[in-house]
Specification:
Elements (H helix, E strand, L loop, with lengths): L1 H19 L19 E6 L2 E6 L6 E7 L3 H11 L1 H25 L2 H23 L5 H14 L3 H14 L4 E5 L11 E5 L12 E7 L5 H11 L9 E6 L7 E4 L4 E3 L18 H9 L1
Parallel strand pairs: 3-6
Antiparallel strand pairs: 1-2, 2-3, 4-5, 6-7, 7-8, 8-9
Bound molecules: 2-acetamido-2-deoxy-beta-D-glucopyranose.
Length: 288
């Protein structure tokens, strides 16, 4: 399975290739070496195991979670990553607080108004209120487990998870195959967060490998309510993201479905509604 992760890291090399032939590109070529090391085991708790690969700024956590219930997976993630979350969450909100004036200028007027009136935390809470009716219950269950395991408040864990929904993100994706790749055979897939590399989340890169309990009755009983189709089981999948985020932005599952989020919103009107299941959760249920 590890090979699959490393294929994703390899794509950076392909991008350098593309940049070097396009003089209009102002980006800096990524010359970081690809990590080939075997992940090192760190520790385990009921329902979870933690590994790390790389070191310093390039350290990547690899956390395996085994359901149980969504609460059990959240609890295991929280326990395994508690110390890191205790550092990340305050750093993350302090960072956002510092950047908020710049951030507001890039946001749709409606969201800028919410933040001006309610503060960032209040806007994230409002976003929870307007989406929760549409959100499958297993996300709240996992967030509650994550809060209990890590010792971070449930409200702050929830806010961290609703930031992508509030700002709707942007990001980049690429799928390359055939003549566009050096190997000319494999399909390569990249999803880039395109955020400040000094943002605190960059220090907590985490691959979370979920092994959901496919017969968990919460999925069976409620899947149709949210997705209007019959629940037909779950797959093991890896979320490539940052610590604390339980929804998907980039992911890959055991039946070879790769997922990378990209949004193209130029006007608030391009968003048909802000009432709905947050996009990070919709994408996760696509791979899970
Ligand atoms: C999976 O979910 C079912 C139904 O909710 C439960 O009875 C079972 O104990 C769970 N399996 C594990 C390994 O926890």
């Amino acid at each position: 399975m590890n090979n699959n992760y490393f294929i994703l890291f390899c794509i950076l090399a392909i991008i350098s290739q593309v940049q070097s032939v396009d003089p209009s590109c102002k980006g800096i070529i990524n010359t970081n070496p690809i990590l080939h090391d075997e992940p090192t085991f760190v520790n385990s708790v009921p329902n979870g195991k933690r590994f790390v690969v790389g070191s310093g700024y390039d350290k990547i956590n690899i956390v395996h979670l085994y359901g149980g219930t969504p609460y059990d997976m959240g609890l295991a993630l929280g326990k395994l990553m508690s110390e890191d979350l205790q550092h990340l969450v305050p750093e993350y909100f302090a960072y956002l607080d510092n950047k908020i004036e710049d951030l507001i200028k890039t946001l749709p007027p409606l969201v800028a108004k919410w933040i001006a009136e309610l503060g960032l935390l209040g806007a994230l809470d409002l976003n929870y209120e307007i989406t929760r009716f549409y959100t499958p219950p297993w996300y709240d269950e996992e967030l509650r487990g994550l809060a209990a395991g890590s010792g971070i408040s449930y409200e702050n864990i929830r806010r961290l998870n609703l930031l992508p929904e509030l700002i709707k993100a942007a990001c980049s994706v690429i799928g390359a195959w055939g003549q566009s790749t050096l190997s000319k055979t494999t399909l390569l897939h990249l999803r880039s967060l395109d955020w400040d590399e000094k943002a605190p989340i960059a220090k907590y890169a985490t691959v979370t490998v979920y092994h959901p309990n496919t017969s968990y009755e919460g999925y069976e009983n409620h899947f149709h309510d949210y997705y209007k189709q019959k629940y037909s089981g779950s797959y093991t999948f890896a979320n490539f993201g940052y610590l604390g985020l339980i929804g998907s932005i980039g992911a890959y599952n055991e039946v070879s479905v790769g997922l990378g989020q990209k949004v193209w919103i130029t006007k608030e009107q391009d968003i048909t509604s802000r009432f709905g299941n947050p996009w990070t959760y919709v994408l996760r249920d696509v791979v899970q």
